[in-house]
Queue: 2 jobs
Job 1
Amino acid sequence: MTPKTTVDKILSNQPRQPASAHAVGSAFAPSNIALCKYWGKRNDQLNLPVTNSLSISLGNLGATTRIWEVEGTEDRVSVNGQVLSIEVEFHKRLSAFLNLFRPQSHTRYCIETTVNIPIAAGLASSACGFAALVRALQDLYQWNLSNSDLSVLARLGSGSACRSLWEGFVEWERGEQEDGFDSKGVVLDTLWPELRMGLLMVDEKQKTISSRMAMKQTVETSLFYCQWPSQVNRDLLNIKKAIQSKDFPLLGETAESNAEAMHALMMTAQPSIQYTTPETLKFKTQIWDYRKDNRASVYFTQDAGPNLKLLFLSQDESFLQEQFPNLQVIVPFQKISSQLGSKS
Amino acid sequence: MTPKTTVDKILSNQPRQPASAHAVGSAFAPSNIALCKYWGKRNDQLNLPVTNSLSISLGNLGATTRIWEVEGTEDRVSVNGQVLSIEVEFHKRLSAFLNLFRPQSHTRYCIETTVNIPIAAGLASSACGFAALVRALQDLYQWNLSNSDLSVLARLGSGSACRSLWEGFVEWERGEQEDGFDSKGVVLDTLWPELRMGLLMVDEKQKTISSRMAMKQTVETSLFYCQWPSQVNRDLLNIKKAIQSKDFPLLGETAESNAEAMHALMMTAQPSIQYTTPETLKFKTQIWDYRKDNRASVYFTQDAGPNLKLLFLSQDESFLQEQFPNLQVIVPFQKISSQLGSKS
C-alpha cells in the first residue's frame, strides 16, 4: 500500500474533478497540541505511528486554506500572504502531497493559507495546515467524506494532522492494519470548558533539528526507545481517566511526565537532541515552584522546540497572566461551547 | 550473606585488636568521578550494583582519615575539624558501618577526616571517605589486606567507594556472586598524563534529593530503567577502547552521553528527578558550542547534582580557564606520574 493507492481507495466513489472550472475550495482546521505525544513511526511512507497519541484542539487557532486549480508548471503556495519559493522544503512537501490528488498529471494548484498561530513555534502549524488542506480539497471537489476518512488523508501529509479534524480531545489510534486504514483520529465526547492552555514563547536563537528528523534519530539510535510504548500505554490510560473524571492534577501530571519522557528519550539519541534551553528550564522551574508552594495548579507540555505550553484551569488564569506577562492564553473549548450554546 | 558476615570472612585471618592501646590508624584515599556511571543496585544491603561502572581517581584530591579507639557511649566524628552531631545522617551511616568492625560491642571510635574537595558537591566525598576509612582501619589493626579486599569492605559503606582504592582508571566489576565477593574495583594499567578534569561549580539554591534516594526512585519507577544495562555495556566498551587507544573524543563523547542518559532516566522517574538547573544547562550549551565551533575539545560529565565536571586535554586548559574563570582544574595522573618519575 502506497499513499497513492490509499487516496485512490478512499476517493473511489468521489468526484475527482471540480464542479466548475472556477471552483474554489475553502476550509478551516484547528491546531492541536498532544497531551500524550506521537513520537516514532512504524511506517515512514504512510506516517503510521508506533503508538496511539492524544491531543487537544485549539478552537479558533489554526489554519484557513483556499485551493483552486490553475494552469502552469508549478503549484503556487502562499502562507500568510507570503508566496513560498518552490525551493522551500514546505513547498516541496505540499506539492508531493498534492500529487496524490491531481485530476491530470499537469493539473497545478494555487493554495493560500492563513495561519493565526506562530509558525514553526511547535504549535503544530503543519498539522492544522494539512488538515485544512484536505478539507479544502473536499470543498473544491465536493466529496462527501467523513472526518474519519479525511483524517486518514491528512495523516498522509503530516502524522499529527489526523488529529486536527475535530474540536476538543482527539485520540489518534495507531491501528493494526498494514495499509493504515485504521490509523486515524477519534474524537472524545468530553467537554472541559474551564481548561486553559497558555503559550509561553522562549526566544530561540539557533535553528534546531526538525521534529521529523528528531523522531527518526530517536527511534534509530536511542537504546531506550523500545520502552516508549509502555510509557504511552500508562499515560494514555491516566489521561483518559483524568478527562473522564475531570481530575485536573492527574491530567497535568501525566501530560507533563509524558512530554518529559519524550525529551529524555531525545537526550539519549546519538547524537543527543536537546530542545530545552536554559530559558525553557527557568520557566519549568518556576512552574514546579508554583505547584510546590500551592500557588497554582499548573503543568506544562513541550514539543519539538524550546517553547512551553502551560496547562491550567480558568481559576489560575489571572495569577499566571501576572507571572508571565507574555503568556498567550488559549481556551480550547470556547468555540465548541459557544456553538453548543447557540444551538440550545 | 550480610555485611557483617562479609567483613568477618575477609578478616578471618587478620588481627581484630589494635597492636597497642594508643595505636592510631591513618590513611588517604582519592575521590573518583565515574565516566560510566553506577546507577542502580541489585542488592541494597550489600551495595551490589546492577551494572559495571568505570571511574577516574582524582590524584591528591580526596580524604585523609585518622581513627583510634576511645571510651564512651558514642563514636566521635569530625570532618574538616568540625565535630558532627550524632543526629547527622552521615554520623549514623558511619557508626552503622563501624559496627561491622568493633572488637567489642562497647568499643567506640574517634574518626577525624579531612577532605580537600567541596563536600556534597557531587565530588564523591563519601566515596573517598569510606575508602580512606577502611585503609585507616587496616593501618590501625595492622591488617595485610590487598586493595581488592579493601575495595569489598569500602563498597559496604558506599558503593562507589570501592573504586577509590586506586589511582587512575578503575572499573567496578559488578560481579555475579550473591555474596558480593566478586563485586569490587579493578585498576586499569593505562596512564593518561594529558587528561584534565575541570570542576565547574553551579550555585545550588535548593537542597535536592540524595543520590542514594534518586537511584532507588529511578530503579523503582522509571519504565526505561530496564534498558540502562544496554547503555552501560555499549558505553563501557567504547570508554575502554578510547582509553586503550588514547582516543579522547571517543572518551569524551561516551562519558557525556552516559551521564546524559543517567539524567534522562531520572527525568522519567515518578516523580521526575531534575538535578540540572538553568545555569547547568547554560554551561552545557557553552560546551556544545565550543565543540561545534572547534574552539576546544571539551566534554562534561554530571553526577547527582547541578555541577559539571569537564573533560579535556592539557592543550585546551588555558582556553577553558579563560572562558570559565572559576574552573578548578584537576590533573588526575599528576600524583601517579610524579611517583613513577621519582622511581626512575
Job 2
Amino acid sequence: MTEVLGTWIDGAPTDVVPVSDRGLHFGDGLFETISIRNGRARFLAAHLERLATGCRRLHLPFDFGQELLRDIDAAIAKAPSLAVLKLIVTRGDARRRGYAPQGGEVPRRVVSLYAAAPRSIPDQGVDLHLSSIVSGDQPALAGIKHLNRLENVLAAREARGAGAFDALMPGADGRIVSGAMSNLFIVAGNELRTPLLDRAGVAGVMRSVVIRECGHLGLALAQRVLLPRDLATADEVFITNALIGVVPVRRVGEHAFKMNAISRRIAEHVETLDA
Amino acid sequence: MTEVLGTWIDGAPTDVVPVSDRGLHFGDGLFETISIRNGRARFLAAHLERLATGCRRLHLPFDFGQELLRDIDAAIAKAPSLAVLKLIVTRGDARRRGYAPQGGEVPRRVVSLYAAAPRSIPDQGVDLHLSSIVSGDQPALAGIKHLNRLENVLAAREARGAGAFDALMPGADGRIVSGAMSNLFIVAGNELRTPLLDRAGVAGVMRSVVIRECGHLGLALAQRVLLPRDLATADEVFITNALIGVVPVRRVGEHAFKMNAISRRIAEHVETLDA
C-alpha cells in the first residue's frame, strides 16, 4: 500500500503480524481511523472512548491505554501536516484453535500511519449509491467499530462501481442505517435527524461531534428510525466521518437535494474543532 | 498456539502475514477447516466447492485452485495420522486505505497444520448452551465460511462459560440457525430436519454430507425453518461439523433428549466416509 508511512505493532516498527492473530482468523478486534492535523490527533478522546466501549462489548481487556497513547504520540511525531492514523486492536494470538477465547489472550496494538490529501469535497456535495447490501441487525455488535466489515466492503464495492462517493445501506426492514463508511443525517426544517444505531451500524466519532454541537448551532436533534420516505421530504442530507468531516449530499438514488446551506454551516463549524 | 505444526503462506513456510492484509483489516476473506486422517484430506472436494462459492460471493477471483492443492499436499506430507488443516484465503494486501477493493488485489493463501486428538465424544451426547447472541440475518454472506466471525466468538465464549460443548444460536426472529461451530439437525420420526441457511449461518461440509447420505440410510430430509418448539417435540438432536463429524446432543437448555440411536447410526456411517 503506497500511502503507508509506517506501522508499529505493540510499539515496535514492523510490517508483519503473527499469523495466529485472532484478528485475521475471526475479525476478533476493533479499529479506529483518526485524522491527524498539524501534529494533533483530532477528537482523540472520542476515538479512545469508542475503542474502550468496543473492548467492553467484546470482553477484551482495555488495559493498554497508556501504551496506546505512547504509540499514537510516536506515530504522530513522524506524521506530515495531514495524515491518518489507523489503530487496530485485536484479541491477540489464539491460544487454541477454535472460536472461543480461552482467557489470558494478550491484546495486540497495530498502529499505521498514512499520508492524507487535503480535503477536496465538492461544494455542491457528493452522490450516494443505494446499496443492495443491507446493514444486518446484530445488537451485540451495533455501534462499535469492530473488524467484521464484509458488509461495508461489499457495499463500498457497489458504490465504487456506480461512481458514487459512498453507499447508503438499508437495514433488513428497509429503514436507513448508514453509509458504508459514513453516518447519515437529514435536515428537516430546524431539526437534524440521524438513524438510531442500536441494531446495526457504527456510531461514528464525527456523528457524535455533530450531535454534541448542533445545539450551539441552533439546531434540534432527533435520533430515530429513518425511512426512505424521509429522504423524499428532506431539505438537505449530509454524511459524516472522522476523516471527511461533514459532507453535503447532492443525490441519493432518485432523490436530489438542491440545498445544503445548513450542511455547509455545520461542515465549516466542525472544521474549526479538534476535540 | 502450541498445537500449530506449521504455516505456509502462498506456499512458503512462515508464521507472519503482512499487516496490510485485508483479512486483518476487514475480515475480507474465507476459511475452511479440514480433517486430515492418515494422509487424506476428508471431504476435500466439498471444502473446495464451498470456498469457490465464497470467493464468488465476495467477488474474489478463485484462480488459485492449483496452487492451493499443492499447498494442501505439501502440508499433508508433514501431518501426523490425525490432523487439522485450516485454509484461509484473503483478498490480499490493501491497495489503498478504505473498504472498497480497488480491483487487482492478489488473494493470499494461508495454510496452517494443527495436531488433532482422537475423537472423544461421549456416547450419551453433548450439551448445548442456548446463546443470547443471535446469528444475524445477512443474505449476502449467509452460507459461506467468511472471516467475519465475531458472533461465533461471542456465542462460543458463552458456551465455554456455561460448560457446554457448543452454543445454539437463534436468528433475530427466534428461529434456530445453528451452533456457533456446528450445524444442527433434529430427528423427528423418520425425518431429519435442519435449518435453512439462506439468511444466516454457515452451510457446513458435514451438514452437506449428512444431507447427501440420509437417503442411503432410509431417512427423509427437510431443510426448513425450525423453531424452539421443534426441539420440544424432537426425538433426537445432533450437531455436525467437519472435525467432530456427527455428535448426538443430550441437552439444549431445558430440553433433554434420551434417545440417540439414529444420530449414532449416522455418526458411525459418516465416520466410514472420506469423500
